[in-house]
Amino acid sequence: MRKKLLFLLVPCVCAVIQAQDSLTVEMLGLGIYRPKTLRGFAWRPDGTAYTFLEEDAESKGQRILMEDVKSGDKKILLDSRNAEELGTVMWQKRFMLPNYIWSPDSRSILLPSGTDLFLADAATGSVRRLTEDDEEERDPVFSPDGKKLAYLKNDNLCRLDLYSGIEIQLTTTGTQDLLIGRFDWVYEEEFSIRTGFAWSPDGKSIAYFELDQSPEPVFPIVDFEPVHNTVTPLRYPKAGDANALVRIGVVPEQGGETVWMDLGPEKDIYIPRIAWFPDSKRLAIQRLNRKQNRLDLLEADAATGRTAVMLTETDPYGWVDVQEHPVFLKNSPGYLWLSQRDNWNHIYLYDDYSSRDSRQLTRGNWDVTQILSVDEKAGWIYFTATEASVLDRHLYRVRPDGTGFERLTRDPGTHNIQMAPDASFFIDVFSNVETPHRTTLHRSDGRRTRVLEKGDIPALKPFRLSIPEFFYLNTDDGLRLNAFIMKPHPFDPKKKYPVLMHVYGVPVSLTSTQTVDNSWYSGKGALWHQLLLQKGYLIFAVENRGTAFLGDDFQNRVYGDLSKGLEDQVRAAKYLKSLPYVDSARVGIWGASGGGHMTCLAMTKAAGVFKAGIALSSVTDPRNYDTIWTERYMGLPSENPGGYDAASALHYIPAYRGGLLLIHGASDDNVHLSNTMQMARRLQAADKPFSMMIYPNQAHGFHGTGYRAHYYHLMTEFILKQL
């Protein structure tokens, strides 16, 4: 289930719009309202420079620019006029595929173009073809020495020697259902993982996933546009269904027999992550049970397949969030590990691979969201966290002994950090509710070197945009909920205003964002909200129980019944109705994906609280959604039928009173159209009034300016009429 629908604006060629008093729906999809950032950013592996993409206005092509971190000197590295193989960045499913990849030695750049691979010399710009056939070389990865490539081809894992041109097929059993080095739909979506193989540090072996997805049911994705409809079959396990069977193998890069790792007797498991130890002799394998309340970190002998448990994370009252790989130290046999074992996500240091004891390096009522880099020479660990505020993301560092804790970014807001490979510099893409994304270069101690992109949006300057006011809501059972309210200009406290609540409301991972946070797209950048503000509406959002970044106990309060978060949305609505400037008869709610689920529940289970609701791409019954996400928070349907009923909007159709707009993409492979169709059928059978719009050939997000304009018009007119 995707995170909240962000109002990311689609770039397009258009004339600059003249200054006017208010936003219009037609403006919402125009690129001139989007902050400029560095496209295709990548660090040069030696850390001396970084590269990014720039459009060539004359040729309409693009080029790779390289800028030296110390001097700021900039030069064109590759230009599509001279290197036509420099293709465009593409999205495939939920992943952005790069159009250039640096070699580990910083001497070459790989160019995936069409179905083939090309290699450019970083010094001269000359390009040579590496492959020439009709089959795609998918997910190419350099060997650590930069002399070879591994990739997927014809459903199997292959290795190419860059100098001899010799290609070796390392596996032979791959098919459309027996996946080698790649993942089924549910692994990709819920574990955020795409490339299913990894070189050993010495470059002599490759570890890879094998997933047999044949036990999974097939779900049909229908294209309704042709005269003769077409069907795309999709392996998609829904809550309680059979999952793919997973194995981890290690194969020599020269070819030979695969050694399979011993994952234990239980086959109904998940393997969300694998990583090599620095010695290239062992693998670290994360093994997660089906209920996702126990995670074992296994040490696997790559030569024999024998495994032993290094550590175990459990949560008897909820679920264990999957963390990234253990961060192995290079100069000592130890590693860093993230854990919520004290209720908050913190860094733990294990001094030895075999040790069961660890030292907690960070502590407090806040979360470490990501370990970014370890500079062992200087003695620093760099990470991002919510220490300053749960609404913000900042960069920090700490010594390996837990001393020297320091915040390196200062401006309140959201700092997205790209550390240099040697941790000597970092790129900071910063925004807050008032400030569009600003890109700056800093030294490792936080000192700013220069501004790379100011992030100014001149086209927005004529408009007076509103800023969220952050505050807390206290619940009867002692919780403190983060919230914001946005008020129109001018605001008259003597008037009565209608309110539209924005909701996501279901759990997210600790690397995701919130609905209530200090970022551009939660503030001035949410242009549809700004449009409604200009039409006299208040905008409101609250983080209900179950959402992330407020502690494991706070999340676990919805375990087994995701509708428990609805209680806080109802509390918030009642609070709003008590305000002297709110029209208590005109409180609405809207959301997408998980927010659509909460909206459907709000309009049924909490019928009468909200006058109107818009639900996009909604899960209407948790039984319709995938195994990994749903069972993580709800358990198995066979063991928790009451919880599944309680979280199903379909279960509360008799209570529904009207005022709901359902919107769905007909080709949604994530939250299937059947969710909305089931809701519609039950509303019709109960003779209940509702509105619905289906978008042919649209997936979970809506793409293309025509579609966006249409649904923005649709939603705006619905709110103006119903609320």
Task: Describe what you observe in this structure.
It is a single chain. The chain has 723 residues and is mainly beta. It has three domains: 39-134; 168-325, Methanol Dehydrogenase, Chain A, CATH 2.140.10; 459-722, Alpha/Beta hydrolase fold, catalytic domain (Rossmann fold, 3-Layer(aba) Sandwich). The strands form eleven sheets. An eight-stranded mixed beta sheet has the order 38-39-41-40-42-43-44-45, with helices on both faces. A hairpin with a 5-residue loop joins β38 (469-474) and β39 (480-486). The radius of gyration is 26 Å and the shape is globular. The model is unreliable at 2-19 (pLDDT under 50).
Helix-strand layout with pairing:
Blueprint: E1 39-43, E2 49-55, E3 62-68, E4 74-79, E5 90-92, E6 95-97, E7 101-102, E8 108-113, E9 116-121, E10 127-129, E11 138-142, E12 148-153, E13 156-161, E14 167-169, E15 178-180, H1 185-191, E16 197-199, E17 205-212, E18 218-223, E19 230-235, E20 245-252, E21 259-260, E22 269-276, E23 282-289, E24 294-301, E25 307-314, E26 327-328, E27 335-339, E28 346-350, E29 359-360, E30 368-375, E31 380-385, E32 394-398, E33 406-407, E34 414-419, E35 425-431, E36 438-443, E37 448-453, E38 469-474, E39 480-486, E40 497-502, H2 527-534, E41 538-542, H3 552-556, H4 564-578, E42 582-592, H5 594-604, E43 612-616, H6 627-634, H7 641-646, E44 660-665, H8 673-685, E45 691-695, H9 705-722
Parallel strand pairs: 40-41, 40-42, 42-43, 43-44, 44-45
Antiparallel strand pairs: 1-2, 2-3, 3-4, 5-6, 7-8, 8-9, 9-10, 11-12, 12-13, 13-14, 15-17, 16-17, 17-20, 18-19, 20-21, 22-23, 23-24, 24-25, 26-27, 27-28, 28-29, 30-31, 31-32, 32-33, 34-35, 35-36, 36-37, 38-39, 39-41
